[in-house]
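Please, does this match?
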Amino acid sequence: MSFFLNTIVCGFSLYHILAFFLIYSCLGWCVEVVYAAATTGQLVNRGFLNGPVCPIYGFGMILVLFFLTPLEDDLLLLYLGGVILPSALELVGGWALYKLYRTRWWDYTDKPFNIGGYVCLEFSLMWGVGAMVMVKAIHPTIAALVNLIPPLVGFVLMCLLYAVYAADAVATAIAASDLARELDALEKVADSMHAVSDAMTEILGTTALDMDQKMDESLLQFKLAAAEARDSYDKLSPREAASAMRARADEAMEAARRVSRTARLNAAEAAKAVKLAAQGKAEQTAAFLQLEQLKEELAARAQIMQAHTRRGTHLLGKGRMLRAYPKLKHGQNNRSLSSLLEQLEDEYPDSFNGFGIQ
């Protein structure tokens, strides 16, 4: 214990530094909870960890004490330092968390004068005011209270609290990694479903475009029949689908013959055109049905992944993180979980009805 009492860093003993870190981490958590309650009307655990602590506030206040205590008599320098130091820490902390989990736990991109969405001028100016208040008014009281506690009692208490702190940090790191991994998977499923939808649309659009280029009014009936067939294919058995396809091919043959007469094409060219059209239609129908099946499988996987991601209580784990940071954004495209679910619902509304964020 004498080591902690006698080791001095920037004018503070290691014992006091560790005590201040715990205290200000807890006070920072209180500030976050109050701010969230005032702005959202909900009382939630706003800390990154499960316990009532926000480590970034503890680190920020230690930096302020180290570098700004000598400037406490110069209010301008104290304010400027209070703007710069916490903002730099917030920038580095946000960037580090993004690199670790590919997740932005807070994002200021919608605010003016932001840097990468990690910091913004509005909150940086507030940090300056907060640093002044802490150094001039609050910290002297905190320091006096710490000095009232017998060193042995304080040392034992800190050992217990830091043990809990460390266990919480490990558990949170695991939960955050799991959440990031599941958001990665959910994002990939959403992108895949979008790609499948585009491919299905392209199949339909290309077919319609080719018909429009080669045939005129006499092929309108065939296009309508093809659209009707597409709508009913997912309800037909393979045999029924094949029978319907043959019927549509017969209609195509007749339509092509009418076009042939109108365009003065010979019979051989018309038969060849119809054969190619029927063959292409069959291939496109098979591809369309395959894509539809794949899309259903992706939707089922996305439902399971979404349930896993939301799993957990409001007190611990991934569920708590999502409740604490409802606007967190993930991945290179910075998409929130709600936006991912909205995209999935747009792609496959029947499977995701009612799966929005609470």
User: Anything to note?
Assistant: Residues 2-148 form one domain.
